[in-house]
Amino acid sequence: MQHFGPFELLVIQPTPFCNIDCRYCYLPDRTRKGLIDHSTVNAIFTKAFASRHCARSICVVWHAGEPLVAPRDLYSYAFARCESLRPPDVNVTQYIQTNGTLIDPDWCTLFKEANVRIGISLDGPKELHDLNRRTRSSCGTFDMVMKGVELLQRNDIEFSALAVVTSETLTDARAFHDFFVSRGIMSIALNIEEIEHQHTTSTLTAPTSVRRFHGFITELYELSQASGLRVREFERARNSIRYFLQTGNGPCISPFYPLSIDYLGNFTVFAPELLGVKHARYGSFALGNVNDDDLDDALDSAAFHAINRDIALGMDMCRANCGYFGVCGGGSPSNKLFENGRLDSMETLYCLLHIKTLVPVVSRGLVVGAQTGGQ
């Protein structure tokens, strides 16, 4: 059975509403204009800091829906309450993941004053980005996003980009790489187009996808090594490989990583994508509500034990059958559920591309670097 926590990542949904309508979006309630209230904000930080699973360093990520739809004063209040409730020995970093279309000078002032880290959803060059990241009237959002990017850069606000990789992305790794570098965006993350919630298909399930993804990742890795572009997935794979080689141990999928809470206060200690999901076998993945329940009590519930048992069984299957377990740890429970219909299962599209295709590319790079005296 998995080790419990501590949680280092707290994902908070301030609103389910999103002002745009991406074609690959998986969120089922993105037209609902709900908003987290002050009492729920208070309950979140009170219960999180009181949990015996609270880590000494926590990243609070405001995510899902579009966080900047919420008013600025909500964040001013939330940041202040977090700071006042934070134990002296706990460090907190605030992070907002945004589509970038609503950034203005006032938001930049708040970001700087509160030292907020920013993630911008940006899929690459205009023609690529606008294929999927569109307004509710089906117009591309690239120009609006880039205005936000330029505002961040003019205000010296550090940010990273998050790009969803679709079949179209794989067409030209150099154009993808050169776009970010030429715009001075030197830190990016890659999310493959996944099968989740309402997004029931992916352009990456085609028979040629593995070959094309391998070619894309290989070229992107080589280009990034030369340019200094930081790619989250390369860094994670590199760290996992090195850790496994040094210790013989790999990462472990654990409850409470992350802790995810929606705008109503409902929480889960499993993958945030599972929050709001109802399943015939498990019922709701929401294990309680911070306005009424203690987080640690969730570990005593029948629902938790049923979910956790099957996640552990899936991990055991991966451990026994997959040579990549040492650098993966058993895969994402949400991917397994959405793709395979079961938590106690193995390979997913994420495993196939982000692990089994990407890791060998990075590992070869490590070997070459070691042989030539590089990093």
Explain this structure.
It is a single chain. The chain is α/β, with parallel strands linked by helices and 375 residues long. It has helices at 38-50, 72-85, 105-114, 126-132, 142-154, 173-182, 209-227, 232-247, 302-321, 325-328, 333-340, 349-355, 358-372, and strands at residues 7-12, 54-62, 91-98, 117-121, 159-165, 187-192, 230-231, 259-261, 266-268, 278-279, 283-284, 288-289. The chain has a domain at 7-247: Aldolase class I (TIM Barrel), CATH 3.20.20. The protein has a ten-stranded mixed sheet. α7 links the parallel β6 (187-192) and β7. α1 packs parallel to α2 (72-85), α6 (173-182) packs parallel to α7 (209-227) and α8 (232-247) crosses α13. Residues 368-375 have low confidence and may be disordered.
Tell the overall outline: globular
CATH class of the domain at 7-247: Alpha Beta
* Strand numbers in spatial order across the main sheet: 7-6-5-4-3-2-1-8-9-12
- Flag low-confidence runs: 368-375
Structural class of the secondary structure composition?
alpha/beta
Q: From N to C, what is the helix and strand string?
A: EHEHEHEHHEHEHEHEEEEEHHHHH
**Beta-strand percentage range:** 5-15%
Chain-averaged pLDDT: 92
What's the total helix number? 13
CATH architectural category of the domain at 7-247: Alpha-Beta Barrel
Secondary structure: number of strands: 12
CATH topology category name of the domain at 7-247: TIM Barrel
Major sheet attributes: 10 strands, mixed
Radius of gyration: 20 Å
End-to-end CA span: 36 Å
